[in-house]
């Protein structure tokens, strides 16, 4: 019953989020702030994780492909497909669920317990729309960019690790990442990132918006937002893979 | 004028307010008093629609708030200014941005007109030159005054205050009370204050509604309160020796 209660309330909440903004100029001002806060401020962590994950994927692949009949460029090929198909969209989204999701839930939760959301409602402002729509649009716009950046840096990290350790030479790696390239893998990854951005922003905002109590409950909402967003990312990853790659 | 008609509200089948009926007069400071947990805050949050009531009606100058559409309710809310117990200022905005926020959202003023209005409101609450400060840089009393300035920025017809003096020293409390009283008279507002501050009751209580365990026990004004025989009200208002002496003196007069 609790599941259906949350599903119903979440659906009603998302409907309110999509109501026409009270004032478009304020919406666009908020959107630019959220693009910076939720998107641009995440470039650092995405770049750092991508370079190391790319390196590790390349080295692990290299250590598992030591048979002489398997060409060395396969290392670049395997690293590219791992990064494009799974790492840059799913892993990066799971990390952003922690960073961005907790940020959204704690910010909105604090506004709830300090009556700032009540103040908005009393003024006649559609508070879910005012607070959440700019965050949702910002994440949906910026997450695909973060994924593209992650792909580039991850593949570069793999090249650097392979060349520095001598496991694969530069020419083989570059040939591998170009070999049998399917542009749809990038599209598939971008579609997933848009869906995950929607999940992270709305689920986190939902848990923040319905916080009641004090600081302890804000912390709980924040944790719950990250856990539920992460589970949903994993579930939708499976569903989207089944739909898009079969 | 705000009229509350037979209002009842419960949470999880536990009644919090039972059959409350009263009228809050225009251009008067109307006080809702009662012990902590008596249902005062639930009453004023129900009046402004933050709680959905179980039964009854709320009329804003004859307009039923309960039976109207969401859009009409939104329009009525633009006529309400509310002062929250914890001020509820937007902490990521400066004082100026906080006071300007309702104007940005709902007025068609130019930026210059909005800034003039902001400065006028801040002057009304005696807070000139605080425009660029953030709420965290202000004292509790100053935050309350900014919240009042924000509440009056759109020229509200109704001003609802939830415990405006909580957490303030007696001197600052008097300043806030006087400010609300002056604003009520100057702008002909229907003001409702939820309080358990006895100084407010004695100084600005033009109409007083006493709630006890979710039931309206008494209503009257600050002069009538000295002569009431309502036991719960007397136990609440004249709980201290000082107020008992004041009551005795007043009754002799």
Task: Using brief descriptors, characterize the structure shown.
heterodimer; A: mainly alpha; 9 helices; 85% helix; B: 253 residues; alpha/beta; six-stranded mixed β-sheet; 10 strands
Can you walk me through this structure?
The complex is a heterodimer of chains A (246) and B (253). Chain A is mainly α and 246 residues long. Chain A has one domain (24-245). Chain A has 9 helices and no strands. Chain A has helices at residues 2-17, 24-39, 43-64, 73-113, 116-123, 127-165, 170-178, 183-209, 215-245. In chain A, helix 4 (73-113) runs parallel beside helix 8 (183-209). The longest helix of chain A is centred in the middle third of the chain and has 41 residues, at 73-113. The model of chain A has no long low-confidence stretch (mean pLDDT 93). Chain B has 253 residues and is α/β, with parallel strands linked by helices. Chain B has a domain at 86-155. Helices cover 39% and strands 24% of the residues of chain B. Chain B is built from 9 helices and 10 strands. Chain B has helices at 40-47, 70-77, 95-106, 111-124, 140-152, 170-187, 198-204, 231-237, 241-252, and strands at 2-11, 14-24, 29-33, 55-60, 63-64, 80-83, 158-162, 190-195, 207-212, 215-220. In chain B, the strands form 2 sheets. A 6-stranded mixed β-sheet of chain B has the order 6-7-8-3-9-10, with helices on both faces. In chain B, helix 3 runs parallel beside helix 5. The two termini of chain B are 32 Å apart. At the A-B interface, helix 5 of A face helix 2 and helix 3 of B.
Outline:
The complex is a heterodimer of chains A (246) and B (253). Chain A has 246 residues and is mostly helical. Helices cover 85% and strands 0% of the residues of chain A.
Number of strands of chain A: 0
- The H-and-E topology of chain A, N to C, reads as HHHHHHHHH
- Global outline of chain B: globular
* Secondary-structure class of chain A: mainly alpha
Strand content of chain A: under 5%
Please tally the helical runs of chain B, counting DSSP H or I stretches of 4 or more residues. 9
- In round numbers, the mean pLDDT of chain B is 88
What do the pLDDT scores of chain A average to? 93
**Main beta sheet of chain A, described?**
none
């Amino acid at each position: 019953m609790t599941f259906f209660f949350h599903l119903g309330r979440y659906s009603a909440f998302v409907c309110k989020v999509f109501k026409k903004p009270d004032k478009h100029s304020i919406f666009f001002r908020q959107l630019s702030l959220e693009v910076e806060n939720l998107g641009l401020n995440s470039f650092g962590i995405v770049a750092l994780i991508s370079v190391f994950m790319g390196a590790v994927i390349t080295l692990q692949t290299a250590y598992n492909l030591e048979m002489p009949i398997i060409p060395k460029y396969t290392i670049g090929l395997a690293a590219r497909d791992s990064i494009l198909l799974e790492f840059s969209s799913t892993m990066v989204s799971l990390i952003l669920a922690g960073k961005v999701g907790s940020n959204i839930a704690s910010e909105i939760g604090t506004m709830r317990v300090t009556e700032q959301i009540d103040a908005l409602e009393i003024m006649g402002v559609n508070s879910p729309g005012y607070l959440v729509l700019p965050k949702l649009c910002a994440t949906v716009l910026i997450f695909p960019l973060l994924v593209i950046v992650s792909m580039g840096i991850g593949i570069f990290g793999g090249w650097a690790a392979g060349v520095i350790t001598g496991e694969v030479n530069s020419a083989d790696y570059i040939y591998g990442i170009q070999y049998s390239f399917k542009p749809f893998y990038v599209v598939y990854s971008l579609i997933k990132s848009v869906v995950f951005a929607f999940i992270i922003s709305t689920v986190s905002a939902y848990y923040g918006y319905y916080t009641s109590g004090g600081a302890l409950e804000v912390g709980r909402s924040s944790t719950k937002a990250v856990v539920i967003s992460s589970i949903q990312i994993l579930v939708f990853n499976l569903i989207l893979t089944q739909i898009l790659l079969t | 004028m705000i009229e509350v008609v037979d209002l009842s509200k419960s949470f999880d089948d536990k009644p919090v307010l039972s059959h409350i009926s009263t009228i809050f007069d225009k251009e008067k400071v109307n006080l809702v008093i009662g012990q902590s947990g008596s249902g005062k805050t639930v009453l004023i949050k129900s009046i402004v629609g933050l709680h959905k009531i179980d039964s009854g009606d709320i009329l804003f100058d004859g307009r039923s708030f309960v039976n109207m559409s969401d859009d009409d309710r939104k329009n009525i809310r633009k006529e309400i200014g509310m002062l929250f117990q914890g001020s509820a200022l937007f902490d990521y905005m400066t004082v100026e941005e906080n006071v300007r926020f309702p104007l940005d959202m709902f007025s068609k003023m130019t930026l210059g007109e909005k800034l003039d209005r902001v400065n006028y409101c801040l002057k009304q609450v005696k807070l000139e030159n605080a425009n660029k400060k953030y709420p965290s840089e202000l004292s509790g009393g100053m935050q309350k005054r900014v919240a009042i300035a924000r509440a009056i920025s759109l020229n509200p017809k109704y001003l609802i205050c939830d415990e405006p003096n909580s957490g303030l020293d007696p001197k600052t409390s008097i300043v806030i009370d006087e400010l609300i009283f002056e604003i009520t008279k100057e702008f002909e507002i229907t003001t409702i204050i939820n309080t358990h501050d006895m100084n407010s009751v004695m100084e600005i209580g033009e109409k007083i509604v006493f709630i006890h365990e979710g039931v309206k026990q008494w209503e009257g004004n600050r002069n009538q309160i000295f002569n009431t025989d309502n036991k719960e009200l007397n136990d609440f208002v004249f709980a201290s020796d000082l107020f008992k002496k004041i009551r005795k003196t007043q009754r002799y007069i």
